[in-house]
Amino acid sequence: MRPYLIRDIQSQPAITIAWDQNILTASGLMQSANIRRLPVVDEDNVVIGIVSLGDVREAMSVYNTASPYAPDADEVLLAVDEIMSTPAITVRPDDTVLHAVKLMLEHKIGGLPVVDEEGHAVGMVTETDIFRLLVRLWEEGEMEGAAAVAAQGAGA
């Protein structure tokens, strides 16, 4: 049984946000793309962090409760780099799905940016992508295939 690779299941192209964009922009992008995580990139489009829907919602709650009459009210709107998790934990397209699953479990996260050799985002892999793989294997009658995804780690 061949190992399943990230490139087989990743969502692409990567939807990213620049580090200096504000949380309203991040929220709008997540809503319009129906996603829960955004890789954060620098000026060279290198992934430097990740921001989740939970991060944005928490930051928005602070923004929404600030008094509009406060002298620094416009400064309450945070930039993405102020709320992102860094460094981003990433995978490469040729990494195994098992490797991604282990990283997600170890770091208690639900998604990983997929990056090329230069650190540019080329996709995203999430727990949903992994569930889709398992469902496909089960529906195709490849229960042993689904078991093989899990068994790849038995010897690792």
Overview of the structural elements:
By secondary structure, the protein is α+β, with helices and mostly antiparallel strands. The protein has six helices and five strands, in the order H-E-H-E-E-H-H-E-E-H-H. It has one domain (6-151): Roll (CBS-domain), CATH 3.10.580.10. Helix content is 39%, strand content 15%. The strands form two sheets. The protein has a three-stranded mixed β-sheet. It has a two-stranded antiparallel ribbon with strand order 4-5. Strand 2 (37-41) and strand 3 (47-52) form a beta hairpin. The longest helix has 13 residues, at 53-65. It is globular and about 50 Å long.
Total helical segments: 6
User: How are helices and strands ordered from N to C?
Assistant: HEHEEHHEEHH
Order the strands across the largest sheet as they lie in space.
1-2-3
Shape: globular
- Overall pLDDT metric: 87
Rg, Å, rounded: 18 Å
Helix content: 25-40%
Number of domains in the coordinates?
1
Distance separating the two termini: 16 Å
Largest sheet: 3 strands, mixed
CATH topology: CBS-domain
Low-confidence stretches: none
